[in-house]
Write a structure and sequence with these properties.
Blueprint lengths: L1 H13 L23 E4 L5 H4 L3 E7 L4 H17 L5 E7 L5 H9 L6 E3 L14 E5 L5 E5 L1 H5 L2 H14 L1 H6 L20 H6 L8 H11 L5 H27 L1 H14 L10 H8 L2 H19 L5 H19 L6 H18 L6
Parallel strand pairs: 2-3, 3-4
Antiparallel strand pairs: 1-4, 2-5, 5-6
Helix pairs in contact: 9-10, 10-11, 11-13, 13-14, 13-15, 14-15
């Protein structure tokens, strides 16, 4: 245990940046700064609360005429679409703050969140305000420019997002960063009548074989270009994923084991399953790999629910997981790859959940 604490201290001092994307419970939120930036008005929000939502952000200023004109329209859109629970507007005031800012927002009845100089990972190469950015449910910018033009894209994107949530596809997308999670190759596709079949392949817990055969049969017909595109996209995706997992098994065997296990559940009965058979046999024969994989899955499950837990309960849970990693690291027969995976997971818990995970 002493060796683990020494390693953590050295790692923190050296600012080790190696953390595989496969062990991150979630993709970093573009709205992380909402917990630090000065909030001028509206309800308090958190990065976690914005996950899975369509978010419209407007850069504006009190001394900007067009900005002042657009704000009532944004308030109207917020009042109408915010009721869905899947949409949020954020105002980002980028001029000098003054009492006039508060006065204007109060006079116009603005109730959506407004921040002063909120930091966002967006293209900053614009010369004037107002400027709008539209984020989809996965946190990606899908439109930017004139606020009214961007606002026109909101209803269609929101409808698509609500449909994805209802069908379970949004949950599949949200879990893509969990160890073993699958990135979604069809989220932005237009496959016509085959779109539903393609998206259904990524619903949680659903094997792909039946829908894959439907697409494959349709693709054999020369006039079904959408089905052919779907099959080509999926085969290319699986080829890349298999190559990635084979490489990952050499450097991060526990993470690879989790990912391969989930992929194999999806592709059960498909030809691609055989490509991973040998590495599955090797990894599953190593008890240390399976044990660390179980801990990583427990960490991922905890982090997906941590925002709904009371702070004290979350800290206690993080401490328990940290202790599991410490006990695991005391094993004498660990490979250097497994030991590094466990150290990285322990360090990340300590960084995210504070000093209670450092004893």
């Amino acid at each position: 245990m002493k060796h683990l604490n020494v390693f953590l201290a050295v790692a923190a001092m050296c600012a080790v940046a190696f953390v595989s994307s496969d062990v991150q419970a979630e993709k970093a939120s573009p709205f992380a700064d909402v917990t630090q930036a000065q909030q001028i008005c509206g309800p308090k929000i958190s990065p976690d609360a914005l996950r899975g939502k369509v978010v419209f952000v407007e850069y504006w200023g009190t001394n900007c005429g067009p900005c002042r004109q657009s704000m009532p329209h944004l308030q109207e859109m917020y009042a109408q679409l915010g009721k869905t629970g899947m949409f949020c507007i954020i105002g980002n005031h980028v001029q000098q703050y003054s009492p006039e800012t508060d006065k204007f927002l109060k006079e116009k009845g603005i109730t959506f969140p407004v921040y002063q100089h909120l930091s966002l990972p967006v293209n900053q190469n614009f010369s004037g305000i107002p400027r709008a950015f539209l984020f989809d449910a996965t946190g990606n910018v899908v439109a930017e420019g004139n606020p009214m033009e961007v606002a026109n894209k909101v209803p269609a994107l929101l409808q698509e997002t609500m449909t994805m949530k209802k069908s379970g596809i949004l949950n599949a997308l949200a879990s893509s960063g969990v160890p073993g999670g699958l990135k979604h190759p069809f989220a932005d596709s237009d496959l016509g009548k085959f779109q539903k079949t393609a998206l259904a392949m990524f619903m949680p817990g659903k094997p792909w074989l039946a829908n894959y055969k439907k697409l494959q049969k349709a693709a054999e017909s020369s006039d079904n270009s959408e089905a052919q595109t779907a099959i080509e996209t999926l085969n290319s995706y699986l080829n890349d994923e298999i190559i990635r997992l084979l490489a990952l098994s050499k450097t991060d065997p526990a993470k690879a084991y989790v990912s391969i296990d989930k992929l194999n559940r999806s592709i059960k009965g498909m030809n691609q399953e055989r490509a991973l058979a040998d590495v599955v046999k090797k990894l599953s024969a190593d008890k240390n790999v399976k044990d660390l994989s179980a801990i990583l899955l427990n960490i991922a499950d905890f982090e997906s629910n941590a925002s709904q837990m009371k702070p004290a309960a979350a800290k206690n849970k993080a401490q328990g997981l940290f202790n599991s990693l410490k006990t695991y690291c005391d094993r004498k027969n660990l490979s250097k790859e497994l030991k590094k995976e466990a150290y990285d997971a322990a360090r990340e818990l300590k960084q995210k959940y504070g000093s209670s995970a450092s004893n």
